[in-house]
Amino acid sequence: MKFRDMSTEMTEQEIITALYMICPDSLYKRYKREKGYISVWYSLPNDTETDKHHLELLPDNVYIFDNETEQELTDGDAFFRYHQLTVAKGYSYLWKGNPFII
Predict the structure, then answer these.
(1) Is the model more confident about 1 or about 59?
(2) Which of 13, 33, 52, 56 has the smallest number of Cβ neighbours within 10 A?
(3) Could you give the angle at the alpha carbon of 86 between the alpha carbons of 82 and 92, nearest 5°?
(4) Residues 17, 67: Cα–Cα separation, whole Å
């Protein structure tokens, strides 16, 4: 498998799947492709404000922003499932420049 640039090649369905892996009770709003990552906006049940929550999907990391508070997702089930997705789809940096891949 070859490395794929997720910021240009990841489909909207894959973005939504990643969001629900990280935050299962979220309600998807929209996304925006940036250079090297994807920003995803969502709401939670009973939210009164829009654009209150968003996360940034990177090839091997996830940053969650709630009320301007930044948190890096570094462990746990959600991080493990997200990392599985990025490796399986070729978006992880594990694939980039790996000499053992044919």
Answers:
(1) 59
(2) 13
(3) 125
(4) 23
The span from the CA of 71 to the CA of 23, in Å, is 13
Buried b (16+ CB within 10 A) or exposed e, 3-20: bbebbeebeeebbebbbe
Distance separating alpha carbons of residues 10 and 15, to the nearest angstrom: 7
- For residue 92 the two structure tokens come to 């992880």
3-class secondary structure, 47:
coil
Helix (H, G, I), strand (E, B) or coil at 81: helix
User: pTM of the prediction?
Assistant: 0.84
pLDDT digit string, tens, across residues 45-100: 888 777 788 999 998 889 999 877 888 888 889 999 998 898 888 888 777 776 66
